[in-house]
């Protein structure tokens, strides 16, 4: 029923995760696997592209909360881009924009990492 | 008429038989010699009726014994031997005195008693033949049998003709011959022999040859012009005919039984095995429905496999995606079975159908602990084309498993597969039940945590509605009477579902309940709550909350929002969503959390309505996976703001259930409303 797809690609030194479909308690483990893989590869600069994400539940949000600390401790971060308005509203309501960086375009987010060196 | 006769014969068989016997007895004592024709005919009739009723009585009696044909045969044999014994004794004692045909009382008493013994014996023997004839017959053969009975009777009565004229004996001879022919035909009905076990067949073989001879000798003595023949013939010529016929019947019947058994002997073993297979399979079928413990069933299956398939050992392994586990062994050690299994399956081989492995070619380099198997049958346990394990049957001997044995091993493997599936299903349903019980516990916790009543006051009307989802969510609301004038309230939502969120919710309640007594500032209270919660929450869990304090005297509302859905304020004709900044509890430590939080104060006007709700409302889905959204909620509230609070929440719930009628409610729904009545 609820389809979810996750894809990982590298843009320069930054890893971009494309999420697609419905991110909820059932599909969250797939995203977690990607993050675990990044931790093993010591890849801490992550942009999540939400362009094709239709829905996110609290369990989906939990995935980012679980990994962001580790990323930041290693001079990396998780940044969000291309978010649809309905998805952004959910993040916004919870106050995520205070804690995370949101960008309209993936390029901007990747670029931001570049500036930081 | 016939059925009536049958009824009389059956219902009062014993009484009739005894009555007629007494009549016969008395008649013969009174008229020891039947010298007139009338007397002879009456005597014949009495004899015949005695035989008839006794035969019917014995039929019922013997019917109960048909399950053990060998006992029937043996009993008949004993009686035949008894006849032989009596005849021999009588002949040897009275043989010399045959000329002295005394009519003395004792002589006639002796002959009558003798006749009675003979009547009893032959009727019993004859009944035995009848039972054997009908044993295991699939078709209705009573016509054949009854025809024979009629000719028996005709032969019996044909003796009367001779009384009139001694040369008029050809009807008797004719009936006699026809009866013998019928006897021969009916004697071939011996299909029950096939169902005996091998041992029983050997037993029957010996008994039948002895009995056939015995009956033959008896027949010869009756035909022979001995004293015995004279005694019986004098008593009743019909009885004599009957006895000789029964003796012929015995000779022929047991002769045929002997040869049939002889021809059945070579196949006896195969038949035994088939019979055992069938009964084992039946036992297994019973077991499957009764035994839920797979281990126990596996033991039975390996035991039966060993026995029925002529193998020396058998064992059963279960196979999952990752490993192979030995479930049960018979006549082989676990270690050996494990070794052989690993050798055969270890390299990831699959046996899709039953296969025979010749051992010495594969296992020559494996030490099987002194047990060297030459041939092993491997049958897969298949359900829905998935292999869940294997059944092994192994032989020390050189000879291969034949086609039949392969089929049998596979049949047992199939049974094991079904049983395994059954056991799994039962386990799953028990697990499901356990989970459902756990959910009940979680629902219980939630119910007890939420307030059972809402506080009431003059100026502040309150209504709260909570609809739990099937899977327990983490919604929570509560009211705290802080003072006469101040009422604190909280509406919160724990992320996630199930028992874990129910536990977090319980913790949240504890935190708010205790903090509300100490801190009267919503922002500070939430900061403190975040500090406490952050320590116990998992990284990926969070709690959204609104904490507010309403002054019941002047209608001011002070509140702060930690990531929760905004407050709706319905004032006059306008509806307004109020969303002061603030991140969810558990998302960040201080000072990040504290700095994000803004406290707000609203001065309520008369008839203003404040609505707090959980995200279960805007995120409710319809069948197209669309959200209910915030606008729909705003409109419903606006259209109903004149009504009472209960009616407003009813209206919301009604719209909501209409919207998501084909979709299950996947999150809790909480709706808390306040109305300020300035004028009261």
Count of DSSP strands of chain B: 15
User: Hey, roughly how much beta strand do the residues of chain B contain?
Assistant: 15-25%
Order of helix and strand elements from N to C terminus of chain A: EEHEHEHHEH
- The level of helicity of chain B is 55-70%
Q: Can you describe what's shown?
A:
The complex is a heterodimer of chains A (117) and B (680). Chain A is α/β, with parallel strands linked by helices. Helix content of chain A is 46%, strand content 32%. Chain A has five helices and five strands; from the N terminus they run ββαβαβααβα. Chain A has helices at residues 28-40, 58-73, 85-94, 96-99, 106-116, and strands at residues 4-11, 14-23, 45-56, 77-81, 101-103. Chain A has a five-stranded mixed sheet, sandwiched between helices. The longest helix of chain A is centred in the middle third of the chain and has 16 residues, at 58-73. Chain A is globular, with a radius of gyration of 13 Å. The N and C termini of chain A lie far apart (42 Å). Chain B has 19 helices and 15 strands. Chain B has 680 residues and is α+β, with helices and mostly antiparallel strands. Chains A and B meet through α2, α3 and α4 of A and loops of B.
């Amino acid at each position: 029923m609820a389809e979810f797809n996750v894809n990982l690609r590298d843009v320069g030194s930054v890893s971009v995760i494309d999420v697609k479909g419905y991110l909820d308690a059932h599909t969250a483990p797939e995203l977690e696997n990607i993050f675990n893989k990044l931790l093993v590869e010591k890849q801490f600069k992550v942009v999540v592209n939400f362009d094709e994400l239709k829905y996110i539940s609290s369990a989906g949000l939990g995935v980012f909360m679980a990994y962001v600390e580790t990323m930041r401790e290693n001079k990396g971060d998780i940044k969000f881009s291309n978010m649809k308005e309905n998805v952004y509203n959910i993040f916004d309501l919870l106050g995520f924009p205070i804690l995370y960086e949101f960008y309209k375009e993936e390029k901007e987010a990747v670029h931001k990492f570049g500036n930081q060196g | 008429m016939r059925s009536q006769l049958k009824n009389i014969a059956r219902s009062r068989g014993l009484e009739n038989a005894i009555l007629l016997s007494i009549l016969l007895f008395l008649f013969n004592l009174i008229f020891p010699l039947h010298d007139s024709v009338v007397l002879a005919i009456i005597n014949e009739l009495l004899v015949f009726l005695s035989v008839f009723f006794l035969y019917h009585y014995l039929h019922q009696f013997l019917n109960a014994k048909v399950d053990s044909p060998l006992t029937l045969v043996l009993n008949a044999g004993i009686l035949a031997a008894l006849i032989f014994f009596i005849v021999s004794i009588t002949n040897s004692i009275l043989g010399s005195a045959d000329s002295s045909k005394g009519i003395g009382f004792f002589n006639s008493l002796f002959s009558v008693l003798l006749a009675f013994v003979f009547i009893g014996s032959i009727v019993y023997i004859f009944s035995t033949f009848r039972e054997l004839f009908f044993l295991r017959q699939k078709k209705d053969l009573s016509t054949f049998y009854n025809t024979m009975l009629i000719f028996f009777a005709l032969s019996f009565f044909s003796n009367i003709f001779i009384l009139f004229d001694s040369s008029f004996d050809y009807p008797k001879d004719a009936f006699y011959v026809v009866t013998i022919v019928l006897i021969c035909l009916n004697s071939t009905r011996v299909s029950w022999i096939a169902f005996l076990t091998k041992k029983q067949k050997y037993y029957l073989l010996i008994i039948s040859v002895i009995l056939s001879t015995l009956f033959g000798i008896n027949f010869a003595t009756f035909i022979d012009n001995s004293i015995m023949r004279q005694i019986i013939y004098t008593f009743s010529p019909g009885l004599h005919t009957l006895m000789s016929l029964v003796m012929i019947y015995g000779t022929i019947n047991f002769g045929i039984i002997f040869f049939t058994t002889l021809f059945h002997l070579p196949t006896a073993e195969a038949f035994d095995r088939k019979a055992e297979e069938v009964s084992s399979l039946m036992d297994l079928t019973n077991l499957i429905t009764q035994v839920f413990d797979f281990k126990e069933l596996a033991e039975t299956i390996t035991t039966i496999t060993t026995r029925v398939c002529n193998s020396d050992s058998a064992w059963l392994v279960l196979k999952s995606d990752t490993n192979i586990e030995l479930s049960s062994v018979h006549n082989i050690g676990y270690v050996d079975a494990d070794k052989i299994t690993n050798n055969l399956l270890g390299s990831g081989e699959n046996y899709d159908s039953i296969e025979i492995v010749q051992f010495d070619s594969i296992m020559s380099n494996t030490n099987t602990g002194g047990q060297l198997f030459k041939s092993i049958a491997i049958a897969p346990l298949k359900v829905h084309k998935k292999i869940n394990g294997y059944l092994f049957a192994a032989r020390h001997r050189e000879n291969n498993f034949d086609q039949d044995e392969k089929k049998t091993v596979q049949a047992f493997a199939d049974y094991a597969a079904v049983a395994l599936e059954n056991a799994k299903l039962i386990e799953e349903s028990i697990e499901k039940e356990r989970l459902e019980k756990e959910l009940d516990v979680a629902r219980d916790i939630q119910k007890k945590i939420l307030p059972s009543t809402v506080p009431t006051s003059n100026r502040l009307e309150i209504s709260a509605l909570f609809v739990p989802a099937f899977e327990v969510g983490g919604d929570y609301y509560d009211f705290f009477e802080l003072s006469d004038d101040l009422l604190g309230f909280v509406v919160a939502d724990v992320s996630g579902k199930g028992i874990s969120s129910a536990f977090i919710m319980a913790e949240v309640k504890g935190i708010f309940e205790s903090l509300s007594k100490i801190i009267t500032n919503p922002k500070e209270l939430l900061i403190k709550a975040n500090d406490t919660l952050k320590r116990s929450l998992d990284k990926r869990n969070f709690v959204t909350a609104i904490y507010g304090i309403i002054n019941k005297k002047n209608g001011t509302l002070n509140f702060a929002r930690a990531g929760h859905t905004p407050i709706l304020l319905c004032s006059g004709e306008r509806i307004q969503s109020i969303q002061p900044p603030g991140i969810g509890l558990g998302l960040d430590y201080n000072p990040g959390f504290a700095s994000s939080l803004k406290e707000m104060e609203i001065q309520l006007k008369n008839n203003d309505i404040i609505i707090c709700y959980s995200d279960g409302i805007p995120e409710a889905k319809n069948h197209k996976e669309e959200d209910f959204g915030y606008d729909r909620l705003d409109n419903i509230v606006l259209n109903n703001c004149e009504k009472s609070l209960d009616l407003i929440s009813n209206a919301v719930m009604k719209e909501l259930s209409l919207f998501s009628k084909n979709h299950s409610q996947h999150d809790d729904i909480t709706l808390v409303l306040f109305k300020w009545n300035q004028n009261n």
